[in-house]
Design a protein that fits this description.
heterodimer; A: alpha/beta; Rossmann fold; six-stranded mixed β-sheet; 36% helix; 26% strand; B: alpha+beta; six-stranded mixed β-barrel; 13 helices; 57% helix
Chain lengths: 239, 402
């Protein structure tokens, strides 16, 4: 694999829902390249196809047609279980609604991906505590989601997403349920992870304030990529 | 992989204690109700059957009069006499023995102990027409029977109340105005099928009873033993004919005696208890169904919550088969746990009720296995199949499930 090849390449990706007269085409042929280590914000109005694209990139959904290359491999040819393994080993997810397991401590939530990967108990503990430390919640490891604030829950979710050292962190409106102060904290955390760990961050948002933290901003409209712009002002926002 | 699955399943059960408890409760109630009801039904049947067996299964009881009572108005039909007994014994094929009975009641006194009991006058034939072994001593000698000596064989209740349960053979006690030597004690027979304590009895030679207690030579009841090799109905018919001749009952007149066939009664009661068992089993099946619906409900109610959980697990990289295995282990563990608790409760309930109601304690393996199997199956099916449907969704659809 050539070093300058993008980490992710979408070519002519379409996605349709329903059949016949009620068929709805959410994506009409998306072309997109994402290079390793980038921090990409995906923006666009509701129904523009940004979330659908995100779900396809996260291997949570499959394209109706088109090519999806991840590290040069054809993801659209993988079966369910292969996609699950790809998620397990290379991708981490952060959702708008946190999606933590209820009645489950922060530590156990974070170590869940490692459990599925089959890591030994001691290693699970060590890696999970390290991830919680990175998000600043190592003191809260034995609290359940109900005992944590929204911002804290999202931090736990981020710890769970990065505990496997994935290549890509996919965040679907990660600040959508948070107030502006917590939102900025979360964005600083994501930026920090992107810079220090070199993790590629893909983030869907419709708030320009949040998109300002990204290095690249992709605008979606009507199921297509409208334009891609480099955010030269990123450094100013972060510092 | 398997260790992980078990760990995840156990964690999930412990985390959702209420849900786990409710699921288990449905199975516990289903299994406990079914096993208790069916076992008690079977215990009742077997108790009734053993009571009937203790009556003796091939015995005709012959009494004067129609039915159990002595009839309404009109002249009282005459009792039998010794000649009737001999005629039946000698003239009817298939009769093994005929035991005449003359009954009275009196108070027995021994060493200051008082006990009012039944006196049953009969012959040694009494012990051949029905199985009722002695635990000690002997039956009557021919001289004692012929002379009407004051000897007796006592039932266990009498022995307990007069002799404090100790050895009675060789002792002498007073009964009515008679001083009586105990020559034998009987084994315990228990309650009669229709109430009454069969062990509360003093058996004496019939001549003794007739002379010293009833004051007549009448015989109120004859027990006729029938050889099982003969057709009972045929024997009964011959017996009816003989007695009609002896009692001068002509042509169209009705019998003035009745023959009570224990084998026939036994068959009737057995078919009744079989019907009873069938009804009880139907009730049990309904409670199993109700328990099953309870299990289904709690499982289906938790599907929404669990569908999101499945979405989360799939999103963070679980393979569908791993998630399903976890749910299967959970369902099996909860169902088996509930089933086992249900079985234990049922055994305790059956034991308690058997003590309270004098029924025998039974363990019916088929009933236990069936109840456990059906409940566990319902638990597993309704725990597993909703999960299978959820795991077949795209992770994103499972996550969005409302």
């Amino acid at each position: 694999m050539a070093t300058d090849a993008p980490l992710i390449r979408l070519r002519g990706v379409t996605k349709s829902y329903g059949e016949g007269a009620t068929q709805f085409q959410a994506l009409k042929g998306v072309d997109l390249d994402i290079i390793a280590g980038d921090f990409v914000a995906v923006m666009g109005p509701s129904g523009s196809g940004k979330s659908t694209t995100m779900n396809i990139l996260g291997c949570l959904d499959v394209p109706t047609d088109g090519t999806f290359l991840f590290r040069g491999h054809h993801v659209e040819r993988l079966n369910r279980d292969q996609r699950a393994l790809l998620r397990r080993n290379y991708l981490g997810f952060v959702f708008q609604g946190f999606n933590l397991l209820s009645r489950t401590t922060a530590l156990e939530n974070v170590e869940l991906p490692l459990l599925y990967r089959g890591d030994a108990k001691a290693e699970r503990r060590r890696a999970s505590m390290a991830a919680l430390e990175k998000v600043g919640l190592d003191k809260w490891w034995d609290h359940t989601p109900a005992e944590l604030s929204g911002g804290q829950q999202q931090r736990v979710a981020i710890a769970r997403a990065i505990v496997t050292n994935p290549d890509v962190l996919l965040a679907d409106e990660p600040t959508g349920n948070l107030d502006s102060e917590r939102s900025v904290e979360i964005m600083h955390l994501l930026t920090d992870l992107n810079r220090t760990s070199g993790i590629t961050v893909l983030m869907v948002t419709h708030e320009p304030d949040m998109a300002a933290f990204a290095r690249t901003v992709v605008h979606f409209k009507d199921g297509l990529v409208e334009r891609i712009e480099a955010n030269h002002a990123q450094g100013e926002v972060v510092e | 992989m398997l260790g992980t699955t078990f760990l995840l399943a156990i964690r999930s059960i412990l985390r959702h204690k209420l849900r786990s408890f409710l699921t288990t409760l449905g199975i516990i109630i289903g299994v406990a109700a079914v096993v208790t009801i069916s076992t008690l039904g079977q215990a009742t049947t077997s108790a009734v059957q053993s009571n009937i067996a203790s009556l003796g299964s091939n015995i005709l009881q012959v009494r004067p009069g129609q039915g159990f009572g002595r009839g309404g108005g009109g002249p009282r039909p005459p009792d039998f006499d010794e000649a009737d007994v001999e005629a039946i014994r000698d003239q009817i094929a298939g009769v093994t023995a005929v035991a005449p009975q003359a009954q009275s009641t009196a108070t027995a006194i021994y060493n200051g102990a008082n006990w009012s009991t039944t006196i049953n006058g009969t012959t040694n034939a009494y012990f051949t027409v029905q199985p009722w072994p002695l635990v000690s001593g002997r039956t009557f000698s021919p001289e004692e029977e012929a002379a009407g000596k004051a000897v007796c064989i006592i039932g266990n209740t009498v022995r307990t109340n007069l002799f404090g349960g100790g050895e009675a053979v060789g002792s002498r006690f007073r009964i009515g105005n008679v001083s009586c030597d105990v020559i034998g004690t009987l084994s315990t027979r228990g309650q009669a099928g229709f109430g009454g304590d069969q062990d509360d009895v003093v058996i004496m030679p019939i001549k003794t009873v007739q002379r010293r207690f009833t004051g007549t030579r009448d015989i109120r009841l004859m027990l006729v033993g029938v050889n099982p090799a003969y057709d009972g109905a045929q024997v009964q018919q011959s017996l009816t004919q003989l007695l009609r001749e002896r009692r001068n009952i002509s042509g169209g007149k009705e019998d003035d005696f009745n023959i009570f066939d224990t084998a026939q009664i036994s068959a009737t009661i057995t078919s009744t208890t079989t019907l009873l068992t069938t009804i009880v089993s139907a009730v049990a099946a309904i409670s199993l169904l109700v328990g099953g619906i309870g299990i289904m409900n709690i499982m289906l109610v938790s599907v929404t919550e669990r569908t999101r959980e499945i979405g989360i697990r799939l999103a963070i990289g679980a393979v569908a088969s791993e998630v399903l295995m976890q749910f299967l282990v959970e369902a099996v563990a909860l169902s088996c746990l509930g089933g086992l608790i249900g079985l234990l409760i049922a055994q305790a309930a059956v034991a308690g009720l058997s003590i309270a109601s004098d029924l025998p304690f039974l363990f019916v393996p088929q009933v236990n296995a069936l109840a456990f199997g059906v409940s566990a199956l319902i638990g597993v099916v309704f725990g597993y199949f909703p999960a299978r449907r959820a795991a077949s969704l795209n992770p994103i659809d499972a996550l969005r499930h409302e």
